[in-house]
């Protein structure tokens, strides 16, 4: 039987021996029962090694903090760094303006500078200054260009670099392509003329 006693018709002597055996077995296992009642659960991984749950929780918390920090940084980048800086600048400007007195006089330097920096529609002098600044910037930052004989055409209309020596080292693909396009156009034009010849 499952309890460990004999099944069927048994004598009282056999029953007494079995009861004593069961009591002795329970007494022997009593200390194991007490130990297991107050012991902590041991968690193991797939390979059978003990898992350190405290360390795992600490590592998981560190990973979560790093992930939340990274997500926060991506959210900040998604909004736009320049826009964030501009918003911060607007807040600082507003605070600075709030600290100024309500009445502004003609000798207020901040007001004077702000009015000078404003662009007004139809201001001919502002247009002149803008053109002059653009011209100065163009003269400063203009990159060197190729100044030799006209280069062969290419399908992207890209001008050669300023160090090009003028030697065409292509395999002739561009010329063949332009010839095919011109031939196709000529055949189409000829076919059109032939089709409307009778009219």
From TrEMBL:
Classification via InterPro entries: Bud13, CWC26_splicing_factor
Molecular-function annotations in GO: RNA binding
Pfam family, one: Bud13
Regions of compositional bias (Basic and acidic residues) in chain numbering: 20-74, 113-123
Membrane spanning stretches: none
Region (Disordered): 20-96, 113-160
GO cellular component: RES complex; U2-type spliceosomal complex
GO biological-process terms attached to the record: mRNA splicing, via spliceosome
Family according to the record: Belongs to the CWC26 family.
PANTHER family: BUD13 HOMOLOG
Name of protein: BUD13 homolog
Native species: Mesembrinibis cayennensis
Phylogenetic placement of the source organism: Eukaryota, Metazoa, Chordata, Craniata, Vertebrata
């Amino acid at each position: 039987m499952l309890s460990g006693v004999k099944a069927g018709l048994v004598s009282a002597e056999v029953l007494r021996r079995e009861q004593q055996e069961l009591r002795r077995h329970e007494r022997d296992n009593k200390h194991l029962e007490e130990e297991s009642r107050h012991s902590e659960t041991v968690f193991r991984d797939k390979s059978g090694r003990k898992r350190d749950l405290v360390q795992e929780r600490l590592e998981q918390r560190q990973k979560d903090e790093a992930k939340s920090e990274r997500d926060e940084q991506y959210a900040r980048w998604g909004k736009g760094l320049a826009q964030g800086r501009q918003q911060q600048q607007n807040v600082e400007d507003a605070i600075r303006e709030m600290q100024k007195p309500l009445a502004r006089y003609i000798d207020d330097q901040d007001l004077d500078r702000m009015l000078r920096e404003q662009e007004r529609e139809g201001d001919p002098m502002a247009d002149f200054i803008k053109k002059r600044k653009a011209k100065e910037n163009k003269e400063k930052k203009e990159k060197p260009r190729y100044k030799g004989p006209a280069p062969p055409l290419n399908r992207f209309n890209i001008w050669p670099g300023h160090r090009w020596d003028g030697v065409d080292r292509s395999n002739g693909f561009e010329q063949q392509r332009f010839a095919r396009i011109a031939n196709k156009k000529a055949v189409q034009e000829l076919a059109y003329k032939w089709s409307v010849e009778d009219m």
